[in-house]
């Protein structure tokens, strides 16, 4: 079913397939959007709700999906999609494991649960009230999406980072040494919960007539796709990463068709050789810490990622940055995200500039 909101969809899919194969069709894959001149945002006409109440309301998610679908003109490989942003895409796994969350400064944060190791290990329950709530929201959003784009499964936070929020990061660092068995039990249980939850919601999305996915990254794949990650890994050694994190990543990537490791902080480059041991990991999403500067300052690291055989996605601060990265890295296995343009003309000129230097 073609997307009514996407021009040149067949060409965009071809570029994305080439990217996932580590190749290209003459230029990098590009995520490019421009403001839609005729767009008028529909105001929320429902009851006044706080952020946590909105998470449970299908009509709110449908309202957001409609505005977000209509807002930009999508060019190159940017595809129209909508989903359910439940708890800032950070808290669903915690909620299914018996935890809770709250909002601060517009972002959801998992509440500490210090006695987590004394609680029963979680397992996926299709009748869990949170599962039922997200199902209702997805079904309502699907009615809004129709044939305009695709419905995305809800995103999930990784097991280790979730436990770090339950126990709090400094305490979990000590647990890795003092209570490794308890840590391992919970990591394994949450990893199974993660996988079963993803498969459940992906199955629902498929039953509603969709099947493409992009997690929260925006990079579409034609099948099961998730951003695998471990934000807490900035605090562990390569040996601990290999012992505690790598099994989680292996379990997940084996059950996905496509995956990108969310390299949260340049210090995680120290795990690159370990990540290469995952045969089903497709690539790396470059996500430097604040203050790390332009990706042009990290060309050696970006080249190392490509030498390891990974696809690579990079966010660019400008069209000029995108052209220079293309010259430096070449187009194969590369996807660049450009900032939103004011006009479609400016966006198309940026695409042509990248094409000229590929």
Summarize the structure.
The chain has 358 residues and is of the alpha/beta class. It has 2 domains: 13-36 and 71-79 and 216-358, Alpha-Beta Horseshoe (pyruvate-formate lyase- activating enzyme), CATH 3.80.30; 82-211, no CATH class.
Could you please describe the fold and organization of this structure?
- This protein folds into two domains: 176 residues, pyruvate-formate lyase- activating enzyme (Alpha-Beta Horseshoe), CATH 3.80.30; 130 residues, no CATH class.
- Strand 8, helix 10 and strand 9 form a beta-alpha-beta unit.
- It is built from 13 helices and eleven strands.
- The chain is of the alpha/beta class and 358 residues long.
- It is globular, with a radius of gyration of 20 Å.
- A seven-stranded mixed sheet has the order 2-1-11-10-9-8-7, sandwiched between helices. Strands 3-6 form a two-stranded parallel ribbon. A two-stranded antiparallel ribbon has the order 4-5.
- Helices cover 43% and strands 14% of the residues.
- Total tally of structural domains: 2
Report the span from N to C terminus: 32 Å
**Beta-strand percentage range:** 5-15%
The level of helicity is 40-55%
Largest sheet data = 7 strands, mixed
Which structural class do you get from the secondary structure elements?
Answer: alpha/beta
Tally of separate helices: 13
Low-confidence stretches: none
- Given this structure, which CATH class of the largest domain is correct? Alpha Beta
């Amino acid at each position: 079913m073609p997307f009514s909101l996407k021009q040149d969809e067949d060409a965009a899919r071809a570029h994305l397939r080439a990217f996932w194969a580590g190749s290209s069709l003459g230029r990098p894959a590009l995520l490019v959007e421009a403001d839609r001149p005729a767009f008028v945002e529909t105001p929320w006409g429902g009851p006044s709700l706080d952020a946590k109440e909105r998470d449970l309301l299908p009509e709110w998610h449908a309202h957001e999906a409609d505005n977000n679908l209509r807002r930009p003109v999508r060019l190159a490989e940017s595809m129209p999609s909508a989903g359910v942003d439940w708890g800032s895409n950070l808290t669903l796994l915690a909620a299914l494991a018996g935890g809770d969350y709250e909002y601060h400064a517009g972002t959801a944060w998992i509440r500490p649960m210090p006695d987590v190791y004394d609680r029963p290990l979680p397992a996926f329950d299709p009748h869990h009230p949170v599962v039922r709530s997200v199902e209702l929201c997805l079904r309502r959003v699907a009615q809004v999406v129709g044939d305009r784009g695709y419905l995305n499964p809800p995103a999930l936070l990784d097991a280790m980072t979730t436990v770090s929020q339950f126990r709090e990061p400094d305490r979990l660092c000590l647990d890795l040494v003092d209570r490794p068995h308890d840590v391992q039990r919970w990591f394994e249980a949450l990893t199974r919960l993660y996988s079963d939850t993803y498969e459940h919601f992906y199955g629902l999305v498929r039953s509603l007539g969709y099947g493409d996915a992009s997690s929260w990254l925006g990079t579409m794949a034609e099948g099961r796709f998730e951003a695998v990650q471990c934000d807490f890994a900035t605090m562990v050694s390569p040996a601990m990463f290999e012992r505690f994190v790598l099994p989680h990543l292996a379990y997940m990537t084996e059950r996905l068709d496509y995956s990108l490791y969310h390299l949260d902080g340049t210090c995680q480059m120290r795990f690159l050789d370990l990540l290469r041991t995952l045969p089903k990991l497709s690539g790396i999403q470059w996500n430097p810490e604040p203050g790390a500067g332009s990706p042009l300052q990290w060309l050696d690291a970006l080249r190392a990622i490509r030498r390891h055989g990974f696809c690579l996605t990079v966010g660019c601060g400008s069209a000029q940055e995108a052209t220079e990265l293309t010259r430096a890295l070449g187009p194969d296995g590369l996807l660049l995200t450009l900032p939103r343009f004011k006009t479609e003309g400016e966006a198309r000129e940026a695409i042509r500039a990248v094409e000229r230097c590929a």
